[in-house]
Fold:
Amino acid sequence: MDKITSEYTHWARIHLSPSHLFSAAHFARMSACLENETDVTQELIKERHRSCVIGSIFASVAFLEAAINELYAAASDKMLDHPGLADELRTRLATIWSIEHFRRGARVLEKYQCALGLAGAKQFDKGAQPYQDAKLLVDLRNALVHFVPETAPIKGESGVEIPVHKFGKQFRGKFKTNPFAAKYAVISSSSSPETATYPFFPEHCLSHGCAQWAVNTSLTFADHFFNALNLKWYYEYLRPIVATDCKPSEAG
Structure:
């Protein structure tokens, strides 16, 4: 950073949490538009759709990460404060933010829990909503970022049952699955060609419904947190325009 002199009279601090939230909603809308396409067999449409859903999931978690980092950074900033952030809480947040192990090593949801504790507010119940869905969202993002292919049996026309992926159980009933998850032709050395249904993750999981759930989950969690601190954060101005359904002008 350049040397600070008396000539500096204005200061700026950039916040990316609104951009991440907008991106998450935008990608969710795009995935909805693509699901409205009539020809679901086109590989390009299917790839665009998957990219949009994954982008929405990534951006939803990035929104949560940016928002909580912004809070700690605001508390530590000696040039600009944040309206409504009490001096005592600022000092507490700044103190723990100065610890590199916490700043770089704490998990995103741990940072939220810690901030609530330092504020004397009730922490999230880890066994209830909205914490459980937020944890599931982070787990889904991590599974995609650090994706490791798994060799698993698939259900073919022969009727052999397959084990249910853990996400299949955890996401049951939360959203509609991917309409692009068509049956695939499978050829093995021990049987004749047949069609088969692939496991829930990632094929069936990555739907517009999943993207929409990701956006709503991150927003609900952030709202709960900042309401507990009685703070309005920088993404508030986006609330009227954050939509996850396809607009007519965006279709096609």
In short: The longest strand covers residues 191-197. The mean pLDDT is 87.
